[in-house]
Amino acid sequence: MTQALAPQAISSFAAWREAQQAAVERALSSWVPAQAPAGLGEAMRYAVLDGGKRLRPLLALATCEAVGGHTAAAMRAACAVELIHAYSLVHDDMPCMDDDVLRRGKPTVHVQFGEAQALLA
């Protein structure tokens, strides 16, 4: 038999999620360079910072907390998981794979910046 979660538990989780998502966004924004040769920084930021639910880093941070760790200590690892995920989406969208032209309602990286930039981003 399953039990419904109490409203305060749902509210508490929502607050935790929002706080952790904001922390992940800040960390990613500070670690993904804005300036890089040949516009690569712009392509990287476009691929990583413009949308997404950040479920993978949230799971990493929740796992850290579940075993008694501190989320600040796990933030780099959590963001690394998100960066790998973003990389996989960029490469999956390339013409040699799925050749998708839209992701999250906007042009994919290879459409916006070209295939060479997408490959390096």
UniProtKB/TrEMBL annotation:
Which Pfam families does the UniProt entry name for this protein? polyprenyl_synt (PF00348)
- The source's superkingdom equals Eukaryota
> What's this protein's name?
Geranylgeranyl pyrophosphate synthase, chloroplastic-like
Fetch the InterPro entries from UniProt: Isoprenoid_synthase_dom_sf (IPR008949), Polyprenyl_synt (IPR000092), Polyprenyl_synt_CS (IPR033749)
Q: List the cofactors.
A: Mg(2+)
Q: Where is the signal peptide?
A: none
Which organism is this protein's natural source? Elaeis guineensis var. tenera (Oil palm)
The UniProt entry's GO biological process terms, in alphabetical order, are: isoprenoid biosynthetic process
Stretches of the chain forming a coiled coil according to its record = none
Q: Which family does it belong to?
A: Belongs to the FPP/GGPP synthase family.
